Amino acid sequence: MCGIVGYIGKRNSLPVLLEGLKRLEYRGYDSAGVAVINSDSDIIFFKKAGKVKELESEFNKDLLNGNVGIGHTRWATHGEPNDTNAHPHFDEGRNIFLVHNGIIENYLSIKKKLSLEGFSFTSDTDSEILTNLVEYHFRHKNDFEVAVRMALTEVEGTYGIACICKAEPDKIIVARMGSPLMFGVGIDETIISSDAAAIVNYTKNVIYLEDGEFAVIRKGGFQLKTIKDEHIMREAQRIEYDLAEIEKGGFEHFMLKEICEQPESIQNTYRGRINFDTGLVKLGGLETVKDKLLSAKRFIITGCGTAWHAGLVGEYMLERYCRVPTEVEYASEFRYRQPIINSDDVVFVISQSGETADSLAAMKEAKRLGATTVGIVNVVGSTIAREVDAGTYIHAGPEIGVASTKAFTSQLMSLALITLMIAQNKGTIKERELDEMLRELKMLPDKIRQIIEKHKEYEFVAEEFKDSRNFLYLGRGFNFPVALEGALKLKEISYIHAEGYPAAEMKHGPIALIDENMPVVFIAPKDSTYDKIISNIEEIKARKGKIIALANDGDEDIKRYSDYIIHVPRTAPIFAPILNSIPLQFLSYFIATARGCNVDQPRNLAKSVTVE
Ligand code: F6R
After folding, report:
1. Ligand 1: distance of its center to the CA of 305 in Å?
2. Which of 165, 287, 471, 556 lies 20 to 30 A from 586 at CA?
3. What pLDDT does 202 receive?
């Protein structure tokens, strides 16, 4: 959610800022802007509603020629996405320029105070208020660093900021409270960002800021402090990140690339964690909490959006194979309903980015109430990954497409591994069933490849239904959350209204929507729910709904009931949601592209929601 970049060093800063903004654009793309301290110490800025490409085409790059600068790509919170509300923000005298991610909750009272002091404002943003607050303190103290510190002690809310000052042009000050911020330490240069994607091209040595910290970065080095002015020593962490992973690699969209990467990403999730000779599952990151996992009286899984859907599948897995009561909570609701949590509970927090504000807050609340917290996270070194008691990385690799695809299936794989590890240790799974699962697991990457090879089938169905206005997705058991996820994927990238339901629940209301214009996607594998699903299909067919059935290879009977069939290889029930999700990802992708939608950057969305 919003992207921050900054550069201070010996290069011309502008190309670094623009390249960084393009890499961060998946985090927000309503508007973009840059401000550079030129060689004559004047600060020149450009900002504009729209994408970075539009910003770039609008200004004369020769005008920005300094080697200190900041940039921002925005996902609007306060104020519509227009040129004025775009960052960087600055004070009337154009001394302080600031880019901000997060929300300043008490901005109205600060605005009132500053207005009484003669400050005026041009935008609708809370970020402009913060900028002026820094300038206010600068006027009193004549010291940039002190001014930033004083301003930050006054604000309530969340922020990741980078700011520059015309009167002190040799530095960039960055700070963090609840919104990610880091800087890469290169040779004679520092690259600041809210996301490692903008840094890795220059250096792999990164310092992550913690909440309540700020850094003063100069050409010759940096000082890390708390906002109470206490010095901090911290070594840079080396991040393993391959630039090729965050490029499209010949695919038209990141989303398509990421869908097609799933044979490898799934394998990366389980690689090294299963001994196929002994059948033992071992998750190194969970060893310290293994006793807690085995003695837990209850599991709670929390997350948002797609991660929450993964949690729902996890509930089926953990209850069925570990026999431990499991609840799934929207992270955004969790802490507001005074949850009853105790030290026998284990709370799993699922998050691709590891930065989602609601998931982070839920995790903190669970910790505060004494539960053991376990992260299931993709982004290495992210806030949730750092703050949980223990965790397992899903190792899906960078996910840039805003709609989550490979991270979802790797979250499912991680949950399956955790389930098998616990079930093995508790003896709640039969050896024969476990052997069968592990045999299936080995075949999973190849089965995913078979699904990918059939992409023409999905494209054909997409072409047939691209103009539909509504969709229903129905599934049962393990595949009910798959229906929810299928519907979410479609609505977020194609803007077609779609709903997911447990197939039998359809009779209790949604059936009223069925007519000849309603496509209904049934997830109908040959498992214990098959006969019931067929009855549900008949109910829809009787009302002239259009049936798109996701069925197992070799299931010829289902032809009788369906208008369109998408075939998926059969697997063990625990892994079926992984295979069944992939054709639905393709279906959404092809429908959205056929409608001319920007699938990588759908309207109003951002990759990582770091505000509540
Ligand atoms: C949907 C999607 C979102 C995220 C949600 C949580 O395709 O990507 O619903 O799943 O915003 O994000 P993370 O997993 O980063 O916490």
Report:
1. 5
2. 556
3. 93
Rg (CA), the chain: 25
Distance CA 274, CA 414 (A): 12
Q: Nearest CA to 564 among 531, 519, 597?
A: 519
* pLDDT score of 39: 81
Question: Residue 244 contacts by C-beta under 8 Å, 6 or more apart in sequence?
Answer: none
Query: What is the location of CATH 3.60.20.10 in the chain?
Result: 3-239
The set of residues, in sequence order, having a beta carbon less than 8 Å from that of 338 and lying 6+ positions away, is none
- Residue-wise pLDDT tens digits, 325-357: 999 999 999 988 889 999 999 999 999 999 999
Q: Looking at ligand 1, which atom is closest to the CA of residue 408?
A: 10
Give the Å distance between the CA of 607 and the centre of ligand 1.
7
Those residues with Cβ within 8 angstroms of residue 67's Cβ, 6 or more apart along the chain or in another chain = 7, 8, 9, 10, 11, 12, 13, 219
Q: Which of 168, 196, 148 is nearest to 3 (CA)?
A: 196
Q: Where are the beta strands (DSSP E) in 466-590?
A: 470-475, 497-502, 519-524, 546-552, 564-568
Identify whether the C-beta of residue 199 lies closer than 8 Å to the C-beta of residue 184: yes
SS3 sequence of 523-555: EECCCCCHHHHHHHHHHHHCCCCEEEEEEECCC
Rounded Cα–Cα distance for residues 499 and 483 (Å): 8
Write the DSSP string, 65-81.
Answer: --SEEEEEEE--SSS-S
Of residues 26, 181, 97, the one with CA closest to residue 608 = 26
Atom 6 of ligand 1, nearest CA residue = 304
What six digits make up the tokens of 359?
Answer: 């998931």
497-502 vs 519-524, strand pairing mode: unpaired
Identify the pLDDT of residue 65: 87
**Ligand 1: which of 259, 329, 334, 353 to mutate, judged by most atoms within 8 Å of the beta carbon?**
353
With 0-12 CB in 10 A as exposed, 13-18 as middle and 19+ as buried, what is 249? exposed
Judging by beta carbons within 10 Å of its beta carbon (0-12, 13-18, 19+), is residue 371 exposed, middle or buried? buried
**pLDDT, tens only, 392-428:** 999 998 898 989 999 999 999 999 999 999 999 999 9
- Distance of CA 259 to CAs 36, 262, 587, Å? 38, 6, 11
471 CA to centre of ligand 1 in angstroms? 21
Residue to mutate, 356, 581, 600, ligand 1, most ligand atoms under 8 Å from C-beta: 356
pLDDT on residue 271: 92
402 CA: nearest ligand 1 atom: 8
Distances (CA, A) of 139 to 117, 125, 142, 165: 12, 22, 6, 12
| Distance of CA 260 from the midpoint of ligand 1 (Å) | 19
Q: Spell out which residues line ligand 1, taking CB within 6 angstroms.
A: 304-307, 351-353, 356, 359, 403-404, 488, 492, 608-609
Q: Give the residue from 151, 118, 156, 120 showing the smallest Cα distance to 134.
A: 151
Q: 454-598 maps to which CATH number? A: 3.40.50.10490
In the chain, residues under CATH classification 3.40.50.10490 are 249-452, 454-598
Report CA(563)–ligand 1 centroid distance (Å): 32
Name residues of the chain where pLDDT drops below 50: none
249-452 under CATH 3.30.390.30, yes or no: no
pTM strictly above 0.85: no
Which residue minimizes the CA distance to atom 9 of ligand 1?
Answer: 305
Q: Which residues are identified as catalytic?
A: 2, 607
